[in-house]
Amino acid sequence: MSNEEIRAAAIKRINQKRGFWRMVGGFVIVCLILTAIWALSGGGYFWPMWAFFGMGIATAFSGWAVYGPRDRPITDQEIAEEMRKMGGQ
Q1: What contacts 83, CB < 8 A, 6 or more positions away?
Q2: Residue 85 lies inside a defined structural domain of this protein
């Protein structure tokens, strides 16, 4: 990879990390607001858990995309090896 490609990949990764943490912040704020609404309306059945569950799944997948295993670029050696396996030269 050239320096420009590495720089572009690094900028993309930084933007993904920032976006994830903005999402986490939004998740926390919405959880606090929904919990306050629930408490001010008299409590009872804790219905905000359904919103927490759905937003938590979205946040978890977003975090996995940013901090989970990274896709590495395909190398010329891997291409040549795959072509050899397929019967090419």
Answers
A1: 89
A2: no
